[in-house]
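Example record

The entry below shows one chain as it appears in the dataset: sequence first, then structure tokens.
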Amino acid sequence: MKKFLVFIAIFAAMLLVSCGGDSKKENETPDSADTVSDKDGDTADSDSSDTEQGEKTDSDSGDTTQEQPDDANSQSDDDSGDSQSDTSDSVDDSDTSDSGDSTPDEDADTAPAIPECSGEASTFPCIDPEFGLVWSSVHDEELRQELAVSHCKDINDGGFTDWRLPTIDELRTLIKNSPETTFGGSCKVTDPKCRAEQCSTSSKCSPVSANDETGLYSKLGDHDTFWSSSVQSDNADNGWTVGFNMAAVSSQYNRIKLGVRCVRGNFKIKNQNACLPNPCSTVKYSTGKCTLSGTSGYSCECDANSTWNGEDCAIPECFTSIKTPCVDPNTGTTWSKKNLGLTTYDAAESFCENLTEGGYSDWKLPDIDQLRSLIQNCSATEAGSPSCKISLENNCISSFSECPCGQYCDLDSSGTYSKFGDTAYFWSSTETATTNIYWVINFYSAAFVNNDKESGSNEYGARCVR
């Protein structure tokens, strides 16, 4: 019986403790130390319960004081809070970083890789490492120039949509094995500086005589003729092309159908130098060949009658040298050699029209103002003299009666009245009001003469101008 009562008492005590623990959990927020104690399963007696209530009994005085948080617990709580806060910041940063990087990463993953061009084996689009241009595959049909421009604007090749028809300079970068016509070569065609027909009249733009079908002259193995977007400046119905079968740069009627290859990207020159793009292609009297040298970084090869001065191909000035062709430094007129014994006007005119001197073939007989500019040491008839009214510029060429010029200087056979030292009669191309009567200058006396075109003598001659 006693054992039974003891059992009942223990059961009741356990039930009381259990109910008190549940009540405590519902009404208290334990500190870290309490939590640890509960987890360890320690049983709290009444003293420990008092301590858990935040009071501490002084054994000597019996006073109670408010317990301060345990330092370790306080640090632990702080660390726990910091840790949670840091974790939250880290996630936010990570999320922000991932969000910011996601687009470029996706672009990098999805952007098409661009291989370098490698001749006929090229995979298109491909990039020319020398100039940084990206080239498309060849369109499967030939087009007129206008439609070629539209085609390149509209295509999607290799995932790219920013294509364009290349300029003549860009198209020339694909030429190989032809130093005259590849970009920077002596062929003078360039956009926009030299797009007129005369820019391609020399053999420099058509250096190859034999047709090639193997792709010898193309970096991409092409052997057909392709359109550029460049228009001939003096004929809008023509456009510039490259014929890769002969490495030729030429203009074609823009309605014929030719090959189309598109380009994208920025025009860059891998090894920049002063000859690229070719500065000599538009230099007057230059052959178009550029060489790296000199203080300007390059020099242009000049024709046989001019000399590179660091900026231009300059032909010699007249009157300081007997060499011709030469340029009059005062008027800018270029003069040829003389030819005497031209007894008729027609003979003089024919001489100039058929003359090739210094590589030039565009000579003509000078007008009376040009011829008069050669008079010196005779104030009565020199250019600008008020005593001689004959002048094409002033529209006074009809006759001596309308345009007085009867004065002249004393006869002299030393050539003193000519800047060239000439002592003969020279034809001009200026006709008087009387048909077949032309103005002539007699350099023996710096006198004006009007002669019938058939009445010359062996002392009549010509100097030509251009």
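Notes for this example: The chain has three domains: 113-270, 281-314, 317-466. Residues 19-109 have pLDDT under 50 and may be disordered.
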